[in-house]
């Protein structure tokens, strides 16, 4: 499995590559369009085919924001694994908020 490794607000994050539809620049940052929503990144560091992903244990889960499902060591240092179905709020872009608003309007 491939992983898109990114940096945002000083942390290294990774999202499954098969969930990323496109990447674009937006006002000095990057916007990653996922199958569901969008993420912001200060930098897109690499695509890594060999992350050794570990599940988030109870201590790690307690210390990370909701939407983090594990950790891995990338060539850019420790990376927090993003749950693409429920990413951490601090990574969400406005296009995610718009999509969520539209979804709520449909209910």
Describe this structure in words.
- With 107 residues, the protein is of the alpha+beta class.
- Helices cover 18% and strands 47% of the residues.
- It contains 2 helices and 9 strands.
- It has helices at 58-63, 94-106, and strands spanning 3-8, 11-16, 20-26, 29-34, 38-41, 43-48, 54-55, 68-74, 77-82.
- The strands form 2 sheets. The chain has a 6-stranded mixed sheet, with no helix packed on it. Strands 3-4-5 form a 3-stranded antiparallel sheet.
- The longest helix is centred in the last third of the chain and has 13 residues, at 94-106.
- It is globular.
- The model is unreliable at 98-107 (pLDDT under 50).
SSE pattern, N- to C-terminal: EEEEEEEHEEH
**Number of strand segments:** 9
* Beta-strand fraction estimate: over 45%
Give the termini distance in whole angstroms.
Answer: 35 Å
Q: What about the largest sheet?
A: 6 strands, mixed
What is the mean predicted local confidence, pLDDT?
85
In what order do the strands lie side by side in the largest sheet? 6-1-2-9-8-7
Low-confidence stretches: 98-107
Outline, from the CA principal axes? globular
């Amino acid at each position: 499995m491939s992983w898109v490794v990114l940096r945002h607000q000083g942390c290294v994050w990774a999202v499954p590559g098969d969930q990323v539809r496109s990447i674009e620049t937006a006002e000095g940052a990057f916007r990653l369009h996922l199958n569901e929503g969008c993420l912001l990144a200060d930098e897109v560091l690499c695509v890594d085919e060999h992350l050794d992903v570990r599940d988030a244990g109870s201590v790690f889960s307690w210390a990370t924001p909701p939407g983090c499902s594990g950790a891995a060591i990338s060539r850019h240092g420790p990376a927090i694994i993003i749950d693409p179905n429920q990413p951490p709020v601090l990574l969400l872009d406005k296009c995610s908020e718009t999509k969520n608003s539209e979804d709520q309007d449909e209910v």
